[in-house]
Amino acid sequence: MRANSVLENIIEAPVKLGATSHVNADPRKGPQGDIIYNPGNPVLTGTIKVYTFFYGTWTEEQKNIVLTFIVNIANTPWFNILRTYYQEIDGVQTYVTGPLEATTTYNLGTSYGTTLSKNSIPNTLTTLIQAGSIPNDPNGTNYIYAVTGDLARSTDNGCSKIDANPNGTPNGDRGIDAMMSTVAHELAEAITDPYVNSWRDENNYENADKCSHRYEPTVKLQHGIKYNVQAGDRRYLIQQNWDANTQQCTMSA
Hints:
Shape: globular
Helix content: 10-25%
Mean pLDDT: 81
Strand order of the largest sheet: 5-2-6
Low-confidence stretches: 1-28, 157-162
Distance between the termini: 24 Å
Strand content: 15-25%
């Protein structure tokens, strides 16, 4: 998910989550090596506009779980981790600050079919751009959430399998709650490494890659339900992120 043009600035399937096989013995450390800034390359600074696309069948409650997170996450200690990242361009150092602004929400239904390929998202965005429906915002980020089947059941076999708690989830929707850690993961990387050339470690991992599926500390609710972040009036279980100052995984900065 990268800036520059709205076509490039889309969420990608988080296949990088497999990076957890490279972790160190220290539970706070991700893949070996500090994360390093490549001078002259940008992060997303100031207010970041988020354009959200819901594909498939979504209830208003499910949409609210997603949008509440987007609008409120910048007010949490977790987002302060992103504020340890900066850009240095022409000798001027500027840090990530936020906030996030849920600018526009698009409900696409199944207008492009129920079988999606890796080209479906960019093709969808191309069509919307050509129709004048989406602005080309270099400081924005676009999310397309695609649900064409039983999301709660699909978490048993997809990349969110480890994020789906069979005992229950903070917002009562197993599929959407499991997805939110992936949302946090990709959001963090879009903000701090929008062109895929700003912040990387020696193994080419971005910050969220280094902390995938690490959640501590958590708060336990009834029936073993856990959460670790409260954003607005909702609770979420999302992964840790990599602090650029302390060079370790954490839930706050």
